[in-house]
Design brief:
Blueprint: E1 12-14, E2 20-22, E3 31-35, H1 42-60, E4 64-69, H2 73-83, E5 89-91, H3 96-100, E6 104-109, E7 112-117, E8 120-124, E9 130-134, H4 142-151
Parallel strand pairs: 3-4, 4-5
Antiparallel strand pairs: 1-2, 3-8, 6-7, 8-9
């Protein structure tokens, strides 16, 4: 599980609309990497909408915002189109990137145990180091807090 000041685990993942994104190729831009459980659920939709609403301010601060879930690229395409989302959504179908970031965890719901993504966000600075980590994110106000952290870099 990466900690603050660690080099962020690199990855290359397929994105909505086709193509791939490699984290290390985005340097020297800071990157806000938010992991979310599932496309088109209430909490995930609200989080993605909040990041989309603030995207011009993230861009003005020189930062990129990327969302990652285990959903397929096709599901990401539908999710983006349905809600008018603006940031790239990456598909981590095998959960390897989620595991590298320590967000693929055991969860319990309705008496069942399963593995899934713990809503988490990482701010990666222009040198590729983790500058800030938010675990077990509560959605309201989170995008604003991430924007303030970007501005503080």
């Amino acid at each position: 599980m990466p900690q603050i000041s660690d080099i962020a685990p690199d990855f290359t993942l397929p994105r909505d609309g086709g193509g791939e994104i490699r984290l290390s190729a985005l340097r020297p831009a800071p990157v806000v990497l938010f992991f979310y459980p599932r496309d088109d659920t209430s909490g995930c939709t609200r989080e993605a909408l909040e990041f989309t609403a603030l995207l011009p301010e993230f861009e003005a601060a020189g930062a990129l915002v990327l969302g990652i879930s285990a959903d397929s690229v096709a599901k990401h395409d539908k999710f983006k189109a349905k809600h008018g989302l603006a940031m790239p959504l990456l598909s981590d179908a095998d959960a390897k990137t989620c595991e590298a970031y320590g967000v693929w965890v055991e969860k319990k719901m309705y008496g069942k145990t399963f593995h899934g993504i713990e809503r988490s966000t990482f701010l990666i600075d222009g040198d590729g180091r983790i500058a800030r980590v938010w675990r077990k994110v509560k959605v309201p106000g989170h995008a604003e807090e991430a924007l303030e952290a970007v501005r503080a870099l």
